[in-house]
Amino acid sequence: MTTARAATLYGPKDLRLVDRPLDELAPGFVRVRFAAGGICGSDMHYYSHGRIGNFVATAPLVLGHEVAGVVEAVGEGVTTVAPGARVAVNPSRWCGHCDRCREGRRNLCENIYFMGSASKTPHMQGGFATWFDALPEQCVPVPDAVPFEAAALAEPLAVCLHAVNRGNVAGKSVAVIGAGPIGLLTMLAAKRKGARETTMVDIAAAPLAFASRLGADRVVDLSADAGGLAAIPAPDVVIEASGSTKALASAIMAVRRGGTVVLLGSLPGGDIAAPINPVMAKELDLVGSFRFDTEFEEAVGLIASGAVDVMAIVTATRPLADVNAAFELALDRSQSVKVVLTA
Ligand SMILES: [Zn+2]
Ligand SMILES: [Zn+2]
């Protein structure tokens, strides 16, 4: 093993499988053999536009941050994981010593690196590669009975658990805008965290039908009725998971007085227009939700115990070798919810 075959983005719609040389495994690191990787909305943004929000890929970027695999080798000094371990890989590499890390919000680490993200330059390469290196702390063991495809989805589930934690959803009515994989997992996470009632909101019928089958108490199709959100009892919490400016406006207008709006989706970069006065007049809590902290381990536990069935959102698996076709399939919302790459 001297090279890894890696799905590398060179520009919008220019994703190539290239052989990248593997350095000798550094002390303190582990080498992971790729087994499964979820294609995320942010991967698709990079693929389509070369950027997501304010993060712009300025150099070739190996995509992928929802990955699971097998520890192939461990570097000098590694004692907590051993070769052969099946692991879900936490894509976050936080410093552990900055103020944010020390106050228990490691997702806000001043020095964080995140796999497959252009948030930092040089970019940290992602996990859609036959082999990649990680720190042992990033590798969370998964039981043999858990398929790698499910283990790979610990990352998006962690994102959603963090969002429902930020929204304090226990006992509340919760509306989620955007019935893509993140929206759907947010709905499942909200139920898990004791939400009283869940409403899924979207502008397309197919994802909403999927949401109903997955257990949403109510669905609202804004393409059929733009005012549909006004017709339901005002939710206590609205979680914006679509990344659309219009949806942010809808969330602020729809949430009850004194309610909470959670921004989970990546909105377009730069300045956007939104109705902000109601945040004051309705005394809204407008909170952001970015990645996750300890929710990653929690997500692995919920998947391993069967408490959250992440495989219910997987609509296709494709080999890493067919990564371009897999991305095109994932982009077609009429056919796909979640597409997972396999070895
Ligand atoms: Zn993701
Ligand atoms: Zn830090």
Structure in words:
This protein is of the alpha/beta class and 343 residues long. It folds into 2 domains: 184 residues, Quinone Oxidoreductase, Chain A, domain 1 (Alpha-Beta Complex), CATH 3.90.180; 132 residues, Rossmann fold (3-Layer(aba) Sandwich), CATH 3.40.50.720. The protein has 10 helices and 20 strands. Strands 3, 7, 8, 11, 12, 19 and 20 form a 7-stranded mixed beta sheet that branches. Bound molecules: zinc ion (ZN) (2 copies). The site of one zinc ion has 6 residues, from α4. One zinc ion binds next to α2.
Primary descriptors:
single chain, 343 residues, alpha/beta, Quinone Oxidoreductase, Chain A, domain 1, Rossmann fold, 2 domains, 7-stranded mixed sheet, 20 strands, 27% strand, binds zinc ion
